[in-house]
Design a protein that fits this description.
Structural class: alpha/beta
Strand content: 15-25%
Strand order of the largest sheet: 9-8-11-10-12-13-14
CATH topology of the largest domain: Rossmann fold
Distance between the termini: 29 Å
Low-confidence stretches: 248-263, 705-713
CATH class of the largest domain: Alpha Beta
Helix content: 25-40%
Number of helices: 23
CATH architecture of the largest domain: 3-Layer(aba) Sandwich
CATH superfamily of the largest domain: NAD(P)-binding Rossmann-like Domain
Amino acid sequence: MNSSLARILAPRSVAVIGASRTPHTIGYEIVAALVRNGFTGAVYPVNPNAHAIHSLPAYPDIGSVPEPVDLAVVVVPKQSVDEVVAGCAEKQVGGLVIISSGFREIGGEGVERERRLLEFVRAQGIRMVGPNCMGVLNGHPDVSMNATFAPHLPPFGRAAFVSQSGALGLSVLDYAREYGIGIGQFVSVGNKADVSSNDLLAAWEEDPDIGVILMYVENFGNPRRFLEIASRITRVKPIIVVKSGRSKAGAQAAKSHTGALAASDVAVDALLAQAGVLRAGTVEELFDLAMAFSGQPYPRSRRTAVLTNVGGPGILAADAMETYGMEVPELAPATIANLQQYFPEEASVRNPLDMIASATPSGYRAALSGLLADPGIDSAVAIFVPPLGVRQEDVTEAIARVAVEHPTKPVLAVLMGHEGLPQGRAALAEAKIPAYIFPEAAARALNAMCRVREWQERPRTPPESLGVDRTAAARIIAHALDAGQNRLNELEALELLGAYGIPIAPARLAVTPEAAAAAAEGLGFPVVLKVMAPEIVHKTDVGGVIVGLATATAVRAGAESLLAEVAKRAPTAAITGLLVQKQVTGGIETIVGSSRDPAFGPLIMFGLGGIFVEVLRDVVFRVAPIGRTDARDMIRTIRGAGMLDGVRGAAAANHTALENVLMRLSQLAFDFAEIQEIDLNPVLARPADSVAIDARVILSPRLEGRTRVSSPQ
């Protein structure tokens, strides 16, 4: 391992500072775990009051250890950590795992204590996991290190796991043992003062022994670095994340559509989707998905077959497949003819295939072989509900043998019995066949496997250079801020979009009905009149919009009527003028927007616009800046995407033009930290172009020192 974390993840020697001879203490358990699990390097207990611990010579301090030490596991009271770490630096220890608590997690003086510790280890060039963590584990036979207070190593495998919760980490390791999920490396990062989840991702990216990465995340310290690293990794190996805090809204929702829809958990979903990361809703789901990547090939398509010995679970499985976007197609006639010879007339030889309760292990073998031989089937789920007289081990052995004979098509199993029929599940785990208790979990896992394959096959597009007038945009924003405005008026907002090449409906400002009529003649008829007043967010609610004005006389009369109506319905509003805008028609109303998240930066939103955004909330987010592939995904993944392809004879929208709007708005939001929110609602998606009709831009004070990254494609 060439990573800077090698002396932590694969050390040749480990010192446990704070080792103890008292059972059930952490210092006792860590030394015991290292010895019990056969760590291949040297173990040095450090305790000034003991001559030997677990039959190993003990040393009074780290400086007394006669040999070089790669990793020191520190289990001492918080007041002693600084002194111990200073001794480690003098000894030239390369890595630290600080189990001790009492740092940032307690607030107050703990924050300063952690700051001093971090400052020291970085000055010394030492990498540190923790503080306030449960340790690290590497099950590779060449290392066999359990430097945690978990009693046993889980079975060795190709999964790496990083957890921000030590207590959850213990449960995870127990769960992995129970379900036979192979864990190669495990790290509890604790307060992640130095070594972060991103650092571990970078190390595991290059590790050929790691095939899937599992994460429990409470917060993203550097979301943009995560996006950069994870986007590379998911091209070759899956990442599955459980992120806590779904119910927390984060920052207070803003008044605009985009801000109200972009709560913090939406930002997490956007980040993970953009990086090709799978999100699990629970730890149980995390391991359900992890099992799917334990050794089975990816499905070549979403066409799957379901095999069962009981009709009900087969129907449930078919329903779940549809829910998760899988297909349960009809079998080829030749497949049906072949299978009919093995089963009685009462059996349903179709997809799902119900062999009925009398099915034997040989029946499972024949049926599964026939299904996998069908050219229209690319995966299979075998469901077993134990009847009297049939041993689960015999059925699972038959399933495993067939899977070996069809190595290019994944096989998943569902064992519906007491706690998932543990004997059968263990046999399948040994054969690297995922085994679930319920059909829905198998369907979810197959969908995850397909998503990973589709992500890895997705074409990568090079970054595009967007021609923009950043100087003009900066001038518009600076003028507003210098005037003490926290938002642009609508004309300024449209001009800002124009500076970034976003097509807009031409508009002019007028302060009197006569000026409005003259502006309309310059723009060409028909036109739309809109009231301009900072306090009025939804103009139609106060009678502040009139459409379809086709003559100068109509514009003049409409302006007088509009001003009177708004004065009556919003008497305190400060009207600054009238916007006269060329009326643009046709196409599908969409919404494009941006809202700045405190941690993630600007989030870009797309969905169906007009009033539909309030009713349907059919929107999707990504983290700016986005590339064309991201923009294309956004357009295709809303539920109403079919409307953009033309409905009942309507012409399809120009997707490329819509992608351009998304990319240009993304670049605008990313370039200017002063832009807090942007709403373009509607953007008319038409056969030839996409045109922004309405725009709202909310500003915040100027910010300095932003870090920019290139958008992964």
